[in-house]
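Need tokens for this chain, all 338 residues.
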Amino acid sequence: MVEARPATPAEWDAAYRGCAHATAFQSRGWAEDWAAYTHGFMHPAPVLLRLDDRSSLVVPLTRQRRRRGLASSYLASPAGTYGGWLAPDPLDECRALAVAEWLLVHRAPLWWRVNPFDPQAETLRPLAALPDETHAMRLSRGFDSACERASHGHRCAVRKAQRNGLAVRRAATAGDWEAYYAIYLEALRRWGDAASSRYGPGIFDLLRRRGSPGVELWLATLEEGTIVAGGLCLYGPEHVSYWHAAALSEFFALRPANLLVHEMVLDACCRELRWFDLNPSGGHAGVATFKERVGAVAVPSPVIVRDRATVPLRRLGNAIHGLSRGRSAQASKHLLKG
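Here are the structure tokens for all 338 residues:
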């Protein structure tokens, strides 16, 4: 039996909680925050798919208006973040490609950054049009193991920050968030046209209101309490994303960014999470280098783009055909028809 229908909020939440590779970007809260921030320009459009073995999964899509509302496209997740299915058990290659085909046929145009923590991420890579990567640290063996790849320079930077009186704490008030946003505005002026993205205060206010345990703003402060840098972390069931960061340039020499990462990774280990993810670097080589120095490794996170009018499904067909290696030809028949 095969079924495709809109997923209810309760089904979305249950699928998110029960999926080991889920990230905060696939949560209902993330999609609803962006719907509110964009005043409905983006709107949650989750779908529940039931496969022929009677298993089911939820794909948390977002619909985005185009052409002054006369057309729409789909995002696997808002703001260029990870998307994909939420399933209690990992899909096999055949069903992963079947779900991908359904999405590329029935939810096009579609922009989909592959979730690199999904066990079938490698299966989806041949379908991607845009190569990209994130940087992440595996936490399952504890803090010391997670940081074993960190450079000598990073370790020295953490000690320097501590010697100079820097401390890290969680934001506790609306004023803390306002101070962080002011730091972000200063950083935007410094970055100029090189900035990968620009967010208004509304999205930060929505994230503040959602709050812990899914959202934590971490702040680096001087001894007298002055906030000099911050990092915004979004928490999933077993994954934390270091999604946003900014610092005052006059305090770079004190190494607040290094201390923030050190403390956030330590906290993630205490929470017994599996991954600390520093997210794609937007093509900024210096940002990627910093992530490698703190101990993160590059993990592919390509983007699948499907334009209904111009992009053929040939690569998908080839990928499905490739599954016949050592398998029965029956494998290619698990295609959804929603």
